[in-house]
Design a protein that fits this description.
The structure is a single chain. By secondary structure, the chain is mainly α. 80% of the residues lie in helices and 1% in strands. The chain is built from twelve helices and two strands; from the N terminus they run ααααααββαααααα. Helix 3 crosses helix 4 and helix 3 (68-117) runs antiparallel to helix 12. A hairpin with a 2-residue loop joins strand 1 and strand 2 (180-181). It has a two-stranded antiparallel ribbon with strand order 1-2. The longest helix is centred in the N-terminal third of the chain and has 50 residues, at 68-117. It has one domain.
């Protein structure tokens, strides 16, 4: 399965689960009068909703003032997102490392993609796809691009807890934040929160190679779309959580762009200088497969091994030029 579809399915599955839980809660509560006492929603409310209710109420009592409940949610959201920052940065470190390694194998991937467009024969396409898998495998590249869903998974109990805490508490549900009711959806908060994720997505594209940006653009739009959608089907309280998260994630992306990425590029350059990428596929191999030259994966790999001396030199020079161009871009950005 194409790696971008793996990403889409992972995110969409998580959004679907969260949507089902939130809409299910809303259906059971009606006008926020009766909290569930049995079944799956009762279990979730007992172990997530009630603890978050108590936490928000206690924080609000400590702060005091007209907007104390909202500020309680903001503070709790900020603490949660700060706790997740190391994990998120580690995830971005892995993802950025994968992106940098992908630059080095792009010439091979482009040849494979061009060959796939030249044929509609399923057997031939299967052989070409097998070569792509070999490129990833032999160069220790992840099919998912280093992307993980753990930070989002860890946030799901928090999102559900905050939603239920507001949904089943008359005090919190009736409270306001700058005249915005916490217990109802707020398009203003939803739009502001979404804009932060749009900015973060744009910033993340700035450190991606031009040839990779097109395939990443759709995936990057998923986060703002998910933020807006969930904010509009839930409450302003949950929108506040996303808004706080958006502020944190923008600062997190600044760290990635100007601290983590330069270090990764330097380290990757050094690694590629010592251990150049393995050339798994050449144009001759692909032409042989397209012309029906019996090019099985095994024989193609053998051809690659015996005829790689010349092609490896060409690929090394090509990769070296790509890295030098990237370094030049990085230096210009610093200036």
């Amino acid at each position: 399965m194409n790696k971008k579809y793996v990403k889409y399915l992972s995110v969409l599955s998580l959004v679907l689960v969260l949507t089902l839980v939130l809409t299910g809660c809303a259906q059971q509560t009606g006008a926020n009068l009766h909290a569930p006492t049995s079944g799956p929603y009762g279990f979730i409310y007992k172990w997530l909703g009630i603890p978050f209710q108590k936490l928000i109420l206690k924080t609000a009592q400590t702060i005091g003032g007209t907007n104390s409940y909202a500020w309680g949610i903001v503070i709790i959201s900020f603490v949660v997102r700060l706790v997740l920052v190391p994990l998120s940065l580690n995830q971005q470190y892995k993802s950025t490392t994968q992106q940098e390694k992908m630059r080095a194998v792009q010439p091979q991937l482009k040849m494979i993609q061009a060959a796939q467009k030249k044929t509609k024969d399923q057997a031939v396409n299967a052989k070409i796809s097998a070569l792509m898998m070999d490129v990833y495998k032999k160069n220790n590249l992840s099919l998912t691009g280093g992307m993980g869903c753990l930070p989002l998974l860890l946030q799901m109990p928090i999102l559900i807890g905050i939603y239920q805490a507001v949904q089943y508490s008359k005090q919190i549900g009736a409270a306001t934040f700058l005249s915005i009711p916490l217990g109802k959806p707020s398009i203003i908060i939803a739009i502001i929160a979404t804009l932060f994720y749009v900015v973060q997505g744009w910033m993340s594209l700035q450190i991606v190679a031009p040839e990779q940006r097109k395939q990443m653009q759709t995936m990057i739009l998923m986060s703002p779309m998910m933020t807006f959608f969930i904010s509009m089907i839930s409450t302003a309280a949950l929108g506040l959580y996303f808004l706080v998260g958006g502020v944190v994630i923008v600062f997190q992306q600044l760290i990635t762009n100007y601290v983590i990425t330069p270090k990764i590029r330097k380290r990757t350059d050094e690694e590629l200088a010592k251990n150049p990428v393995k050339v798994v596929v050449t144009q001759e191999m692909l032409d042989d497969i397209l012309n029906g030259g019996g090019g099985s994966t095994a024989s193609a790999n053998t051809t690659s091994t015996t005829g790689n001396n010349a092609s490896t030199t060409v690929e090394k020079d090509l990769h070296k030029n790509i890295r030098e161009l990237n370094k030049g871009k990085q230096n210009r950005n610093k200036k």
